[in-house]
Structures are given as structure tokens and as C-alpha cells.
């Protein structure tokens, strides 16, 4: 395949940045999207130019490090991670527009790399549970109904990639935060910090400058892990009931 | 800050106010429509005039109508606050966006839809509420008693094709606002459940078509009546 790539280039956080066009040829349909970018970067390096910076790590769809807003969709046209997207999803001769995630809370560091540490701070604010020290507990000591375990596991699928923020017209982090609130609120182990968790994580999410939710559902439609917006409704319940009942002032 | 004001200034708290005021306005639409449909009764407007008179002089309705104005104001103020905040959350727009694939147009344009509804509300309140309250009204005799003839004011307005068009088009915008807003409000309140959400969505879809359509029917019928 021969392709034209329209890629956002930006030297650093304070640079204004702009699009630059590149041509790549002889791209195999079986390459992943990131491998295609590797080919481009090899060309650029050979020419002595600065390669295009982009985030990636596992390239197996499990770490949440890859990003990219491809032709108007986070992670490209399929509901998967960019590392699991293949060039067969594109046509020969196509022009592909590649942009970084756009959100005030995700500042662009260089080219397509954005700083997603806002997510880490949301987790730090309340995404943890108390664990007793001492002897090893027996397996299955705490009974958890299968349906509840399934819901918690579904929420725990979130890999923190930020596609939900990228997809949302408000750059809202509700889907991510609600998945993290839900996975712990649903389980017995998460009850100790339940109320302060909901309050703290929502407060941190607001402080980072993410938008509010208009319930458009774009996040759910674009999430590579299929996180459902039922989690957002659950977070709203958790938050409102925590606010009115918590004896601790958070 | 007290915990109450802190909560209500959070993104979730602001949305809660949007949802609660929105649901109140939905309820109001039903009551308002039930009253307005009396305009179509073939009694020369007598039922409507008696109804308008009762509403205007009932202390309970007075309280509700003040609340109604307050809720509209709250809904509008918070819609501006939220929309501005949301715009600021994405300072640099995408060069290419395929939003239409993953969300409905109405859900992405609640602000525009709301603004048109607001303009309509101003025209509507000026034409009827303001006239009824502060204007000099014609009177009519019903069963030997004198009533303000609000029906005559409405009939005169709906004999004007432009007025009728503004009404009908505005109801279209209301339909789109409700097509997203109705179910959205329940989601905001945290009411998302496998057993009830499908029903809420269906009722919302039906409501968003039926209520604005019936509202729009009144000026259309009265315009046709005015021709003969
Ligand atoms: C009869 C009139 C109206 C009704 C019944 C109504 C109803 C609703 C409902 C139920 C919602 C959903 C709330 C939620 O998502 O939780 C909503 C959202 C919204 N309304 Fe209205 N509304 C009306 C008038 C207006 C007006 C006059 C404006 C603005 C000038 C407005 C602006 C908005 C906006 C911007 C949203 C979305 C807020 C967001 O981003 O989440 N609405 N409305
Ligand atoms: S909710 Fe989905 S889109 Fe958002 S960070 Fe988690 S995995 Fe990514
Ligand atoms: S690189 Fe790890 S999920 Fe894509």
C-alpha cells in the first residue's frame, strides 16, 4: 500500500505545532498501525530528520499506552487499541490524518505524545483498598456473587488509555473515573473507603480540568475495552449518596 | 465552602441540577399541554377562558409558576456554565472529527437546541403571559359572568402564519432537545438499570415526538380555523 500521512508535529509543550505530510510506500496490509509508523520513522531517521514521537509499550492491547486520533476516531476506525489496528482497515492511496488526544488535562508533550498523568492522580486520590497485614487469607474467604464479580471485572478492563476523553466532545473523563470507582465499589474489599473514594476521585477529576458529562455515549462507543456508561450512572449514585451520607468531610 | 455548595459546583452536582430542573420542565410541559388542548374544544374558547381564569387566581398555581420560572432560569444558567466549562476542557479542536459515528446530533448540540427554545420562550411569554398579566384584555361573558378573553388573544396570534411557523419550528427543536434530554436526565440521576432503562428510552422517544407534536397541532388547527 502507498499512503499519505498527515501528522501533527509539535516540538514541545509550548510550541504551536502544525500538520506535516509524509509519504510511505510498500506498506503491508498485515502491518499494525504502529509498525507502519515505525517504517516512517526509519525513513525519517535515515534522512537525519526528527522521528515522529508517539506513545506505545506492550503492543498487545493491554497496557493502555498507545493513543492517536486517527481519521477523526480515537484508536482509528475500529473499536480497538491503535497497536491492535491493522493496515487492512485502510485503503491503498488513502490520506490518513493523525492527531494527538486533545484535552486541556492532557497537554501535548511532543508530536503525538500527551501527558496522561492526570489519570494517575485520579487513581491516587481514591483508587485503592485497605489490606490487612498478617497471615495469608484463605482463598474464597469472602463470598462474592458471580454477577457482581463479573460487573467488577468488566469495569476493571479499563486500561487507562484516555480514548474516552479523546472521543468526548467535552473531553470528559467520566468513563475512566467511573470504571475505577465501580470496580472497587462493587466488591466487599472496596467498602472501607467507598464514600471517600467517590468524593475524592470526582474532586480530582474536576481539578484536572476534564469536562462534564452530556451523556452523548461517544466514550462507550469508542472505548477499546467496551467499558459501559452504566458505570457512569453508578459513579453518579456513589457520589451523590456519599455526599449526603458521609460523616467525614472530604 | 460548605459541603452543599461544594457539591453543587462540582461537574456532577451541576449536572444534577440540569437533570432535576429538566425533569421538572418535562412535567410542566405535560400540564401546560393538557391546559392548552382546551383551545381546540368547539365552545368558542369558553373552557379555555375559565381554565385560564382558575389558573391565574389559584395561590398554589402561583407558587408553582414562580418555581417554574426559577427552574427555567436555573436550567439556563447551568447550561451556560456547563457548556462554557466543557468548551474550555478542549482548547484545541481536532482537525478531523468523526463524532457522528459515535453519538447523536441532538446529544452534541443541546446548547444550540436550548438556545432556540429560550428565544421561543421569550417570544411566547411576551405574546401571552405578559399580555394576560399586564395588558388590557377584552372580556367575554360566560354563564352570566365576565371573564378575560385570553382565547381571543391566542386566536389572533395564531391567525398570523409567521407566528404559527415560529411555533411549529420551535416545537421541532424541543423534540430534538427531549429526544436526548429525557433519557439523559435519568442517566445523570444514576438511574441506569437493565430492567428499566429500555423502558425509559422508549418512553423518552415517544414523549419527545408526541408532546411537541400536540403542542404544534394547536396553532396549526387554529390557523386553519381562522381562514374560514
Ligand atoms: C421546556 C424546556 C426544556 C426542557 C423540558 C428541557 C429539558 C432538558 C433535559 C431533561 C435535559 C437533560 C439533563 C441531563 O442530561 O441530565 C436538558 C439538558 C440541557 N438543556 Fe434543557 N430543557 C429545556 C429548555 C432549555 C433551555 C431554554 C436551554 C438553554 C438555553 C437548555 C439547555 C440545555 C443544555 C445545554 C443541556 C445539556 C447540558 C449538558 O451539557 O449536559 N434547555 N434539558
Ligand atoms: S474507559 Fe475505555 S477508553 Fe477510557 S481509559 Fe478506560 S479503556 Fe481507555
Ligand atoms: S501499546 Fe499497550 S495497549 Fe497499545
Automatic annotation (TrEMBL), chain A:
The keyword Ribonucleoprotein does not apply. GO terms for biological process: respiratory electron transport chain; tricarboxylic acid cycle. One of its GO terms (molecular function) is electron transfer activity. It holds the Pfam family Fer2_3. InterPro entries: 2Fe-2S_ferredoxin-like_sf, 2Fe2S_fd_BS, 4Fe4S_Fe-S-bd, Beta-grasp_dom_sf, Helical_ferredxn, SDH/FRD_Iron-Sulfur, Succ_DH/fum_Rdtase_Fe-S, Succ_DH/fum_Rdtase_N. Residues 149-179 form the 4Fe-4S ferredoxin-type domain. Keywords: 2Fe-2S, 4Fe-4S, Iron, Iron-sulfur, Metal-binding, Oxidoreductase. The keyword Metal-binding applies. Its cofactor is [2Fe-2S] cluster; [4Fe-4S] cluster; [3Fe-4S] cluster. NCBIfam families: dhsB (TIGR00384), PRK07570.1 (NF005746). Belongs to the succinate dehydrogenase/fumarate reductase iron-sulfur protein family. This is Succinate dehydrogenase. The gene is sdhB.
UniProtKB/TrEMBL annotation, chain B:
Gene3D superfamilies: Fumarate reductase/succinate dehydrogenase, transmembrane subunit (1.20.1300.10). Keywords: Membrane, Transmembrane, Transmembrane helix. InterPro entries: Cytochrome_b-558, SQR/QFR_C/D. It comes from the Bacteria. GO terms for cellular component: membrane. The chain crosses the membrane at residues 16-40, 60-81, 110-130, 150-178, 199-224. This is Fumarate reductase. It comes from Mongoliitalea lutea.
Amino acid at each position: 500500500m502507498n499512503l499519505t500521512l498527515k501528522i501533527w508535529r509539535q516540538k514541545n509543550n509550548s510550541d504551536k505545532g502544525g500538520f506535516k505530510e509524509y509519504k510511505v510506500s510498500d506498506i503491508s496490509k498485515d502491518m499494525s498501525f504502529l509498525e507502519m509508523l515505525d517504517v516512517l520513522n526509519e525513513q525519517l531517521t535515515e534522512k537525519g530528520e526528527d522521528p515522529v514521537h508517539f506513545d506505545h509499550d506492550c503492543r498487545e492491547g493491554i497496557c493502555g499506552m498507545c493513543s492517536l486520533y486517527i481519521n477523526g476516531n480515537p484508536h482509528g476506525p475500529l473499536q480497538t487499541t491503535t497497536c491492535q489496528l491493522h493496515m487492512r482497515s485502510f485503503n491503498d492511496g488513502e490520506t490518513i490524518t493523525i492527531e494527538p488526544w486533545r484535552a486541556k488535562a492532557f497537554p501535548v508533550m511532543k508530536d503525538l505524545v500527551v501527558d496522561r498523568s492526570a489519570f494517575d492522580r485520579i487513581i491516587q486520590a481514591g483508587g485503592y483498598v485497605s489490606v490487612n497485614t498478617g497471615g495469608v487469607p484463605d482463598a474464597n474467604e469472602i463470598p462474592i456473587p458471580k454477577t457482581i464479580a463479573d460487573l467488577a471485572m468488566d469495569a476493571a478492563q479499563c486500561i487507562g488509555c484516555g480514548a474516552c476523553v479523546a472521543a468526548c466532545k467535552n473531553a470528559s473523563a467520566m468513563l475512566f473515573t467511573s470504571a475505577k470507582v465501580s470496580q472497587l465499589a462493587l466488591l466487599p474489599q472496596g467498602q472501607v473507603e467507598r464514600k471517600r473514594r467517590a468524593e475524592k476521585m470526582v474532586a480530582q477529576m474536576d481539578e484536572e480540568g476534564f469536562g462534564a458529562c452530556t451523556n452523548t455515549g461517544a466514550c462507550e462507543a469508542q472505548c477499546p475495552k467496551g467499558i459501559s456508561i452504566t458505570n457512569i450512572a453508578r459513579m453518579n449514585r456513589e457520589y451523590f449518596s456519599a455526599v449526603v451520607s458521609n460523616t467525614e468531610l472530604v | 465552602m460548605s459541603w452543599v455548595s461544594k457539591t453543587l459546583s462540582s461537574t456532577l452536582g451541576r449536572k444534577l441540577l440540569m437533570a432535576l430542573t429538566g425533569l421538572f420542565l418535562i412535567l410542566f410541559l405535560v400540564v401546560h399541554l393538557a391546559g392548552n388542548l382546551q383551545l381546540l374544544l368547539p365552545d368558542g374558547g369558553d373552557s379555555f377562558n375559565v381554565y385560564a381564569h382558575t389558573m391565574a387566581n389559584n395561590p398554589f398555581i402561583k407558587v408553582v409558576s414562580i418555581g417554574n420560572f426559577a427552574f427555567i432560569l436555573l436550567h439556563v444558567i447551568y447550561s451556560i456554565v456547563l457548556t462554557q466549562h466543557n468548551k474550555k476542557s478542549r482548547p484545541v479542536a481536532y482537525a478531523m472529527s468523526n463524532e457522528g459515528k459515535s453519538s447523536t446530533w441532538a446529544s452534541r448540540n443541546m446548547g444550540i437546541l436550548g438556545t432556540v427554545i429560550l428565544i421561543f420562550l421569550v417570544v411566547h411569554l411576551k405574546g401571552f403571559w405578559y399580555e394576560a398579566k399586564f395588558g388590557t384584555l377584552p372580556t367575554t361573558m360566560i354563564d352570566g359572568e365576565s371573564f378575560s378573553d385570553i382565547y381571543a388573544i391566542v386566536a389572533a396570534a395564531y391567525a398570523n402564519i409567521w407566528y404559527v411557523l415560529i411555533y411549529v419550528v420551535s416545537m421541532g427543536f424541543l423534540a430534538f432537545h427531549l429526544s436526548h434530554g429525557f433519557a439523559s436526565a435519568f442517566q445523570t440521576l444514576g438511574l441506569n438499570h437493565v430492567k428499566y432503562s429500555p423502558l425509559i428510552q422508549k418512553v423518552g422517544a415517544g414523549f419527545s415526538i408526541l408532546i411537541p407534536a400536540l403542542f404544534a397541532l394547536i396553532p396549526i388547527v387554529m390557523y386553519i380555523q381562522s381562514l374560514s
